[in-house]
Fold Adenine deaminase.
Amino acid sequence: MSLHEFIAGLPKAELHLHIEGSLEPELMFELAKRNRVSLPLDSVEAVRAAYDFSNLQDFLDIYYSGADVLRTEQDFHDLGLAYFRRAAADSVRHAEIFFDPQTHTDRGIPFQVAIDGLLASMDRAEAELGISSRLILCFLRHLDEDAAFATLKAAEPWQDQILGVGLDSSEVGHPPSKFQRVFERAGDMGLKRVAHAGEEGPPDYIWQALDLLKVDRIDHGNRAMEDPALIRRLVEQGMTLTVCPLSNHKLCVVDDLARHPLPSMLDAGLKVTLNSDDPAYFGGYVNRNYEAMADQTGVTRDQLVEIAINSFAGSCLPEADKARHISAVQAYAA
Ligand SMILES: Nc1ncnc2[nH]cnc12
Ligand SMILES: [Zn+2]
């Protein structure tokens, strides 16, 4: 069996996926037509050709404008289901997916429309594809603390259907400390906490995510590799990092996939997982990320198995479910 064939069947969890970032241009055009929204570009090919980014902000500008075609519960349902179908084809068994409510509420789409559409797609994914999933509500860090508190308040009726809160969008200039109080409140509500940190921002933002936001996972975390004391802390704490290689390459966080820090992260003893971030924009779903790392950095089959195990161990599944999935990975690899 080739390494690509091995990856194709390897059971895995995906822990870093922005559902709005799974909006493929084909679905974007379909929704634009359905909702009579005009798009600035006139073909799927032109849209794909525009996905050439030199940093995170470049991407975010296009990503937020693409999300404008999402208007109804059905749209969010269709978006979710399209992702789960792609994930099922990549042997994803469990997904903890981000959504950005403020991207929608700020253009007049009620919180309820986005969340109920996504929850309906998650129920179908479980019933029809056998994929379990949970939702993580992300605060947009370029907006202020009051807006984050208002979003958390809007989520209260769905509190039991939300796994946790996250922090995304423009990182530099928007440190985790800005959201310390809202994360404290989310913790009091019993929600899990994760945050993007160290994608473009400095190692200090990762320290802040750990010490001020008390996160359960770090999303990205690449720049931890600049700070040996931080690496020790992450290893000691057994902290899971949700690493996204194709994203890192497209957003110029790394200039060459062959020099991606993944092998040094594994050597340092970090609990790394591989994920697709915004697959419609970055050229591939989760298996493409595993393949890119196997092809370009030479990580071994055993290391890919370790990463798949980390993906379940670092999920928020109940312990018995984690153990069941990890046994399935080990049985597949044996
Ligand atoms: N990679 C990323 N970093 C920060 N915010 C995001 N929102 C969607 N993708 C993101
Ligand atoms: Zn992300």
